[in-house]
Specification:
mainly alpha; globular
């Protein structure tokens, strides 16, 4: 039986994704949060575990980059956000989910 935990900063697109999946709220959980926040990955895994009691697979597909511009024009805040969302969050999610899978 397919079950999904869908996560993004804003729920509107998640509701559309859930609708396209054909799964109801009991089988497709929506969690609106920012994975770039240090506590984001933990909050997501806790929500998934509370709702489904287990995790069988993780798809780390969150990512962010500023609009196309030269690297020399990136600000510190943009670099921090890229590292937080594109590097730290996937590592944290994998570590947290691996603990549950073991």
């Amino acid at each position: 039986m397919i079950k999904l935990c869908l996560c993004a900063r804003t729920p509107e697109e998640l509701h559309q994704t859930r609708s396209l999946s054909g799964l109801g709220p009991d089988r497709a959980l929506i969690v609106a949060l920012d994975l770039a926040r240090p506590e984001g990955p933990r909050e997501l895994v806790e929500a998934a575990m509370k709702h489904f009691q287990r995790v069988d697979m993780l798809v780390n597909n969150a990512g962010w980059a500023p609009r196309r511009k030269a690297l020399v024009d990136f600000g510190d805040a943009e670099i921090d956000r890229m590292v937080a969302l594109n590097l730290r969050a996937p590592i944290a999610l994998t570590r947290l989910v691996a603990r549950e899978m073991i």
